[in-house]
Design goal:
single chain, Arc Repressor Mutant, subunit A, 2 domains, three-stranded antiparallel sheet, 10 helices
Length: 204
């Protein structure tokens, strides 16, 4: 690594610093005049290394890059704010199922949970910005399928879904109660795409 950053590194750094939202390699390449994505990614890797021991880090979440406060310094910037309402058990279970099996339909979620799921539960997750509709399943009835969002990865500090913890890790951290059964089912269940239970106006 050179002592001083090159022109491309500085351009990428300035672009990300000014960006209102995280940016992917393709978006950065286009913004910087149609550069080769490979060159932009190389600059990002160099910048990530330069910022690794600084007060802010350059991180990739779901294929998009942005600056964020170093984890060990986050407490210095934390301010008092309204307590965010905790997710209900139903919402937590549904979020876990979507994260481990996306894209997944509401009928498939219900098959995994063993109970009916209200539209309101999915609405809560979509309002939080963690879940989004991701098209329709090509089966009779063409049900909507759901997936997690880049905001979900960012909130939980994940670079990609490959970083989702396994059951053993969650159990060791004491994080399975009260959704351990739902998580284990989510990671082991293989949805039947031909199964289409009634999706209309169901309650928890």
């Amino acid at each position: 690594m050179s002592e001083e950053p090159g022109t491309l590194e500085r351009a990428v750094e300035a672009t990300l610093f000014a960006a209102e939202t995280p940016m992917g390699v393709e978006a950065l390449a286009a913004h910087l005049g149609g550069l080769a994505p490979g060159d932009v990614r190389e600059a990002l890797v160099l910048l990530e290394a330069r910022y690794r021991n600084r007060g802010i880090h350059l991180v990739e979440r779901g294929g998009r890059w942005h600056f964020e406060t170093a984890p060990d310094l986050a407490h210095l910037l934390r301010r008092e704010k309204e307590q965010v309402r905790r997710l209900s058990r139903a919402a937590t279970e549904v979020l876990a199922i979507i994260a481990y099996h996306e894209p997944v339909s509401r009928a498939e979620i219900e098959s995994i949970r063993g109970v009916q799921t209200s539209a309101g539960t999915l609405d809560v997750l979509m309002e939080a910005g963690w879940v989004k509709p991701a098209g329709r399943r090509e089966v009779p009835g063409r049900p909507v399928i759901y997936a997690t969002t880049p905001d979900f990865l960012d909130h939980f500090g994940l670079a990609s879904r490959r970083d989702l913890p396994g059951i053993d890790e969650l159990r060791a951290a004491g994080l399975l109660d009260p959704v351990d059964e739902a998580l284990e089912a989510a990671m082991q269940f293989e949805p039947d795409e031909d199964s289409t239970p009634d999706d209309e106006n169901l309650a928890d």
